[in-house]
Amino acid sequence: MSTTPQTPGVSTAMAALPEETAQARIDVRRTMRRLRAEQPPELAQSRSAAAQKRLLDCPLWCQARSVALYVGVRGELATNELLQAAWQDKKVVWLPRVRTEAPGLMDFVACGGMHELRPGPLGLLEPVDSLPGVGPEAANTHSAESGQAVESAFAPDLALLPGVAFDFEGGRLGYGGGYYDRFLEKALNCPRVGLCFEFQLVPSLPLAPWDQRVNYICTEERILCL
Questions:
Q1: Do the beta carbons of residue 173 and residue 205 sit within 8 Å?
Q2: DSSP-based three-state secondary structure for 22
Q3: Residue 196 near residue 216 (C-beta atoms within 8 A)
Q4: Which of 86, 130, 180, 216 stands the most exposed, by the fewest C-beta atoms within 10 Å?
Q5: With DSSP H G I counted as helix, E B as strand and the rest as coil, what are the percentages for the chain, rounded to 5?
Q6: pTM, two decimal places
Q7: Pairing of strands 106-110, 216-218
Q8: What percent of the chain clears pLDDT 90, i.e. is strictly above it?
Q9: What is the CATH number of the domain that holds 163?
Q10: 80-88 and 41-56 helices cross at what angle (nearest 10)?
Q11: Residue 29 pLDDT more than 70?
Q12: Total domains, the chain
């Protein structure tokens, strides 16, 4: 019997969305990708630095001893300064690694530095295969004797999330693969911070029932508590 979580967010679930909503999601993704591509590299770098500095000065970051992060690529807000600061401060850094044999699923892996990363199948830097990871199905495991939830080794104090766009109610629109939504549904019960450029923050998003929300949003201009 398969134990793969069946969570919406992939093509079969997309087909269940009203046509107007599905098209609106496509339009938002297209617009945001264009805006990111049109952003001059030097401006993207300075905005990324400002957003990261804003978060580094925030109590949420300063008090966290374990953080779930990602390596920003393809026009995303950069995370290089956050990663360097986390490793320098001896925080436990969890980074995602997709499962090549299971589309839509990923593990979070405790990683000790850039030397433990390699290019992944989606073009992202990921932890090397030799490091153990924790998947979403491990978040809600139960003891056979007591029936009580068993705490997973993956228990960050803070989770920093990428996204195509965010809205003022904490809505997050991802890239369409459902990787983060599957994990957010099962785990990451810590504060969730969406990292994005200010232009990626919109009043309202065409969300689907499976889209998971964040508690905070950090841009180069501000941090919002939602």
A1: yes
A2: helix
A3: no
A4: 130
A5: 30, 20, 50
A6: 0.85
A7: unpaired
A8: 63
A9: 3.40.50.10420
A10: 30
A11: yes
A12: 1
